[in-house]
Amino acid sequence: MSTVTRTRLTAEERQEQLIVAAVTAFSQNGYAGTTTDQVARLAGVSQPYVIRLFRTKQELFLAGVQHAGDRIEATWREAADRSPTLESLGEAYGELLAQPELITMLLHGFAAAGDPAIGDPVRACFGRLYEVVRELTGATAAEARDFFAVGMLLTCLGAMRVLGPDAVPPQPWSADLLGTFEGLDKKL
């Protein structure tokens, strides 16, 4: 008879596990379409436990947005350590596009920003990323605007599965548009 031993997670590890599950659930169904019960099932915990840690679905959602923003910032900082240029940060963001749940989580955050309780933290997250890009690269406001404009286009294309690991077969418009990106990693 074999005995299965379970490793008990720390409170911090359990919270991180719930946030990762929340990112997955919210990226699939959006803020309105996701329940804390769905997140609990993905994480393998009870729904009351989720509420005990995060109090509300809104707080859990915002933790997911913050997680996505933190991951992007960390990726950009690592890229800037190698080469503090917009090109380097753009290449690093291209690698993040291979994680559609992360970028789709941000899109759902932007979409839910009409709710004042969600909007302020989402705008703060975006503003922080904008400031990080300028700080790391020395980009002007116009250069940062263009960087984010292209990034948002790629984010939308990734969320629509036009590019990324789960990309649908290209249509003429998408092949034409993607062909305008010099050096876009074709493995996306």
Offer a few descriptive terms.
mainly alpha, 188 residues, 70% helix
Q: Can you lay out the helices and strands and say which pair or pack?
A:
Blueprint lengths: L10 H19 L6 H8 L3 H8 L2 H26 L3 H11 L3 H12 L4 H22 L3 H19 L12 H7 L10
Helix pairs in contact: 1-2, 1-4, 1-6, 2-3, 4-5, 4-6, 4-7, 5-8, 6-8
Structural summary, described in words:
The chain has 188 residues and is mainly alpha-helical. The protein has a domain at 58-178. It is 70% helix and 0% strand. It contains nine helices and no strands. It has helices at 11-29, 36-43, 47-54, 57-82, 86-96, 100-111, 116-137, 141-159, 172-178. The radius of gyration is 18 Å and the shape is globular. The termini are far apart. It comes from Paractinoplanes pyxinae. Keywords: DNA-binding. This is TetR/AcrR family transcriptional regulator.
What count of helical segments does DSSP give? 9
Largest sheet, in brief, is:
none
User: Helix/strand-derived class?
Assistant: mainly alpha
Q: Please state the average pLDDT score.
A: 91
Span between termini: 46 Å
- Shape descriptor reads globular
String of helices and strands: HHHHHHHHH
Rg, Cα atoms, Å? 18 Å
> Helical content, roughly?
over 70%
Task: Please count the beta strands (DSSP E, at least 2 residues each).
Answer: 0
Low-confidence stretches: none
Strand content: under 5%
